[in-house]
Amino acid sequence: xxxxxxxxxxxxxxxxxxxxxxxxxxxxxxxxxxxxxxxxxxxxxxxxxxxxxxxxxxxxxxxxxxxxxxxxxxxxxxxxxxxxxxxxxxxxxxxxxxxxxxxxxxxxxxxxxxxxxxxxxxxxxxxxxxxxxxxxxxxxxxxxxxxxxxxxxxxxxxxxxxxxxxxxxxxxxxxxxxxxxxxxxxxxxxxxxxxxxxxxxxxxxxxxxxxxxxxxxxxxxxxxxxxxxxxxxxxxxxxxxxxxxxxxxxxxxxxxxxxxxxxxxxxxxxxxxxxxxxxx
Length: 280
Fold this sequence. Notes:
Elements: E1 4-6, E2 13-17, E3 35-40, H1 45-59, E4 62-67, H2 72-81, E5 88-91, H3 96-101, E6 105-106, H4 112-115, H5 120-125, E7 127-128, E8 131-132, H6 158-170, H7 188-197, E9 204-205, E10 211-212, E11 215-218, E12 225-228, H8 231-247
Parallel strand pairs: 1-6, 3-4, 3-5
Antiparallel strand pairs: 1-2, 2-5, 7-8, 9-10, 11-12
């Protein structure tokens, strides 16, 4: 079974594999023209095709772009384990843990000079158990958006935001004080910027820089507090996280919703790379 390398991004990743032969193999003059196949979702296919055409023109290596509009990660794992996967696949950096556990990707080697060209946060996003599994190409963020018609002045603190939202709700002009996607079971992805702005974090790090699920930090008015959780509580937390991930929606605030709540607050739109998270 071939292993695959992830040439990924921190939120959106490209997984690179050895479908055309062993990594580092040198083709002789009698070999067929070199080509690469990349799997990509339908939303990003146009941009990938444009980049692939430029690469082909510069390198002489043709690139076939196949669109997989549904269940791209699952399809890749199944195909890779059967030895029929593509050379590259575009996906999110939070795929890495699953792909490593399924044995379908290998670590990448990158020089210090090459690493220095990337945002350190992006490099962390594609690092798993101390190994680099991706080449970042995009980082996204979660932000709060303010309806300027309802709230002309940007609040400077979260307290000001809540006060303005409360005022508008009492006046019947809005239905919510702050529109934050959570749903029936919660949504840690959209809540995380607020959580971290108060000094919180889901996992600490061990001496090697890897995430330590036994340690977490909770927001507080003073310095962030660290706490160690028992293995049983870690398992329960993971189970809840898995359930939430299964029902998570990526909806965000929209100016069209005409709600005043989504307003930039200092520290609330901080970029964050979490284990199993997305930085598109």
